[in-house]
Amino acid sequence: MKVSNVPFKGTKEQEAKLLEVIAQYKDQKGALMPIMQEAQEIYGYLPYQVQKIISDQTGIPIEKIYGVATFYAQFSMSPKGKYVVSVCLGTACYVKGSGNVLEEVEKVLGISDGECTPDGKFSIETCRCVGACGLAPVMIVGGDVYGKMTPDMVAGILAKYE
Amino acid sequence: MKSLQELKEIKEAKQDQVNIRFNPDEAEAAEKTYILVCGGTGCTSNHSGELIDKLTQLIEDAGKNDDVTIIQTGCQGLCAKGPILVVHPGNVFYQEVNIDMVERIFNEHIIGGTPIEEYLMVEEVTEGEFIPYVESAFYKDQLRLALRNCGRINPEDIDEYIAREGYEGLAKALKEMTPDEVIQTVLDSGLRGRGGAGFPTGKKWMFAAGNRGEVTKYVACNADEGDPGAFMDRSILEGDPHSVIEAMAIAGYAIGANQGYIYVRAEYPIAVDRLKIALKQAREYGVLGKDIFGSGFDFDIDLRLGAGAFVCGEETALMTSIEGNRGEPHARPPFPAVKGLFDAPTVLNNVETYANVPQIILKGADWFSRYGTETSKGTKVFALGGKVNNTGLVEVPMGTTLRQVIEKIGGGVPNGKQFKAAQTGGPSGGCIPAESYDVPIDYESLKEIGSMMGSGGMIVLDEDNCMVDIAKFYLGFTCSESCGKCTPCRIGTKRMLEILEKITDGRGELEDLDRLEDLAKYIQANALCGLGQTAPNPILSTMEHFRDEYVAHIVDKKCPAGVCKALLNYIIDPEKCKGCTKCARNCPAGAITGTVKQPHVIDQTKCIKCGACKENCAFSAISRK
Q1: What is the interface pTM, i.e. ipTM, of the complex?
Q2: Which of B96, B295, B378, B502 is most buried, most CB within 10 Å of its CB?
Q3: pTM (2 decimals)?
């Protein structure tokens, strides 16, 4: 898992929100995952400082929280770009050439899978099936789904996100 | 909270407008027009939401609010032709609908009464007569049991589910049957787990049923559909979430549990939203909660979101994850039916399995066991994807052949290419070659030919797909998704992947095939969980059916399908080359030489195989071999 060197810039409002979430789930069985999922919604990622708050409030050891954070692909310890570019590498997309689409995205943005552009605008991630296999190959930019992708469509689509 | 009598009244009030969508004959009598717009993930990604906004506006402007109703449904199945729009009465099926088409459909069809032929499914127009879309090749041979309501009802309206005999199975179980009778019915129906290995569902329930009332127990639903290329469970949750909720309550009554958990992938936001809405409505109506239908039975369900770990589809790992831990599996026994979630006896079934249960309880075991083969009863939903014309969601009786599914329903392989294999069972399954095209599909037959049913992903491969590359793709997947707990899976999959990379890079030796086989057998025998044990399957099945391709990579250093880059050579055909120099100017490696108006040559030692020359050649003189 890539740990970010970007300084933590959490606000008081975010912390208040997180404390509210923790209070809501605290007494439920198996509350850690829902808390971490909401924490990631609030901060966009799960840096050490956020994990520490969860640990202090719930009494769950920080090493366990770190263990859970690094186990699941959904949790990220580095910030993401303003627009997350996600290329599906599920089977249906892969056999229809999504590997070439990913290569093109990396080429156009000048970064690799898992990285963020220096201006913080785009980050690339790969996913294993979003379930839109009928539209394979699929690329998602900032939540917008683009189906039946070919490499030559990539630059034009990314240019729309200014 | 609603009484049984009130549910009956809701059903009667809603029945007419729901029934016309299932029975075209009744539709003729309908006074209102209903427009069904597909709101599954496929069509939503194709902007079906914008179609709804536009239609709403058009209806509003025309003052037709009382005459025309829009219903957002779940998946209609034919994802390849989305967004899909169905108009009742008339049962008219519009495909690939865009915003410009909507206005014409509204004016000419909804207002004018004449369906627009050019927007219809090609097959619908035969000698100028309309054939209902349910008679088309894609829909005709399907049998929809688990998907019975998908694409036909509004999944966000519990009343529509009730109009389709919803919660009558639960009422029957609670009012007329003992828990043991419920289990016996599921047992007799022959229903087997739809998520993987096909364990008899009734048996699972029976094991968990002991000590009723004395211990806390749980009912869990596996909706962590991690198999890439599979979307059956997602479609059921998006299209008919109440069927799963009702089935879990029935299971709770049968084994003596009062709490259920649905573990659903976070990557399925629409399914999660619809489940939340369905759970809320179910609680409001009292079909979840305390003293359901005055029977004294309490049951509620909590939603838990997965966080992107394939291994969590394995039952013990899934439960560890619900408990809030790293989703690592543990050895069985103890089985979940004895010691599962929070160490309590737990029944865990997958979404599609549950979706069959309410109708089995309502209509009886015999009704269900009529369908299917000797050992595999009922139907199976497949997510048809890859190199096939009609990609989408398909449900057929067990025992249907691969040929029927792919050629007839799926419309065959596109672009006149040759069918090579079908991959079923995802990373745990295998590739079924063309020789087995006519094998009736059920749990046993798939196992015999080295694949497995799995959850129902079916990816069609054609002559352009390299089987070694496919095996490498799956191994790359299991390798990165291995949880790391046991050595055979953590290290074994890595070593197998390295050998496959060596082969596709052109550095393979024949001994590598023996090494792969040894490792595969070792991992099968020694990995801790089902996912590790089945991880070698993609290699073993491709080696068995497509050994010649492995040999071609190793001995001839060639990739017959032209996929593995390191083994490809770009070659200029001197007959076709006009000597325009465009390739040489575009080659980033300076590997192409030649004089103007003379055939050019590629220096294979310098070529980096980027393909820029082929892309830029105006005379199709460059081929990849």
Answers
A1: 0.85
A2: B378
A3: 0.92
